[in-house]
Amino acid sequence: MADTLSFTRDAVIQLSASLNEPEWMLESRLQAFELFNNLPMPTPKDEAWRRTDIRRFKLDSFGPSLNGNGASSAPIPPYLGAQLTDDAAGGVLVEDGGVVKVYELSDELKAQGVIFCDIHTAVREHGELVRKHFMTEAVRIHEGKFAAMHGAFWKGGVFLYVPRNVSAAAPLHSALWATSGRTFTHTLVVLEANSEATFIDEYASPNGTEQALHNGVIELLVRDGATLHYASLQDFGTNVWQFNHECGRVGRDAKLDWITSLMGTRVTKAFQTSELDGAGGWARMSGIFFADGRQHMDLDTQQNHNAPDTVSDLLYKGALKDNSRTVWQGMIKALPGSQRIDGFQANRNLMLDKSARADSIPGLEIEADDVRCTHASTVGKLDEEEIFYLMSRGIPRSEAIRMVIQGFFDPVMQRIPFDGVRTRIFERILEKVG
Question: Are strands 115-118 and 157-162 parallel, antiparallel or unpaired?
């Protein structure tokens, strides 16, 4: 590692000083550090971590990222930041280990008052906006050891702010290329009332032989009447251990269309939550994951109906091969008084090898009496009759398998409104199928 500092209070102070941060951010970091320092590492005895054992993860071998360029010899792949939407992106931000390498923002978006920049620039130039929203509403430091760790040592990431009554004139696109061995990026999106935006957020790294760390937070704040289309595409190297906290808050008559694609990492543990805070709020969560080799992916999703007349819709689909394992544990929660809600969740898993394992655990926690909540989960194998049918039409077995897998993922693919995103994801799936 290029930086030899360990996770100490002095390291927090040095990191904040190196970023020329205001006093309030240093105080925020130090508060998070105290919590991080006092919390034990999670173990399988903790309910949320029952199916993910991280005893082989060597946290003590890491330290905070100060320069963000620990081992940036690998070039940034040209696909990162490339256009994935029909309309050309109006803002592009590409970072290597938290250091900005590419930055563009159109004059049209600037004229609309849209703020799109790396989050360190935002802290310095838009401090009051960031201070108001940074880990105050969506993700909070007390949510666990890694949330507190992030609050203390975060570095790199993006800030997107769309003013009231503004429909962003073009999509926004950010990408992280992680070569430093440890990254702590923070995505903060704030859409004020009756605004609209489309944002694609990519994460990738080269494959390595030593353990690497990504400790990330994603916060999506969608105010009353606003609409956010958000896609997160993760394809880290298979040496990365990822610990993420992600949360979207949805106001009255607001809409959050949230797409998640997970292809990389050795281990992923992600907490993904939609909070429906106002009547008429709508949140759709669409997830695609493919695990192979010895990959372990654990996704903990929450759909919290905090207000009446709200709708949530979750569909996660995953494929597994080799000795991989996936865990999906979902919960739909309705608070007292959250009447006339409609909550749906489904997880479908396709097993490509007998040695793979998928755990699928839906759940409901309903404290209201006028609701419509349903859930479903399935774990199944390739249908040999479908493959035989295709082969009887002259299609080679390998191609028939690919077609069946494509058909399996198609329902969730159809929920993705961007051709470029669908193509990127499916090409990666085909690479994994082999």
Answer: antiparallel
**Any domain includes 86:** yes
Neighbours of 192 (CB within 10 A): 19
| 8 A C-beta contact, residue 200 and residue 234 | no
Q: Judge whether 379 lies within some domain.
A: no
Question: Strand ranges (DSSP E) for 163-310?
Answer: 172-177, 182-183, 186-191, 196-204, 212-222, 227-235, 240-250, 255-262, 267-276, 282-291, 296-305
What is the span of the domain harbouring residue 272?
9-277
Q: What is the pLDDT along the chain (434 residues), one digit of tens a residue?
A: 444 578 999 999 999 999 999 999 999 999 999 999 999 999 999 999 999 999 999 998 887 877 654 445 668 888 888 888 888 889 999 999 888 999 999 999 999 999 999 999 999 999 999 999 999 999 999 999 999 999 999 999 999 999 999 999 999 999 999 988 899 999 999 999 999 999 999 999 999 889 999 999 999 999 999 999 999 999 999 999 999 999 999 999 999 999 999 999 999 999 999 999 999 999 999 999 999 999 999 999 999 999 999 999 999 999 999 999 999 999 999 999 899 999 999 999 999 999 999 999 999 999 888 889 899 889 888 888 888 888 998 898 888 888 889 999 999 999 998 899 999 999 999 999 88
Contacts (Cβ under 8 Å, ≥6 apart) of 34: none
How far apart are alpha carbons 333 and 304 in whole angstroms?
5
Q: Is residue 26 part of a domain?
A: yes
Q: Is residue 318 situated within a structural domain? A: no
Number of folded domains that form the chain: 1
β-pair type (91-96, 99-105):
antiparallel
Buried b (16+ CB within 10 A) or exposed e, 19-49: bebeeebbebbeebbebbeebeebeeeeeeb
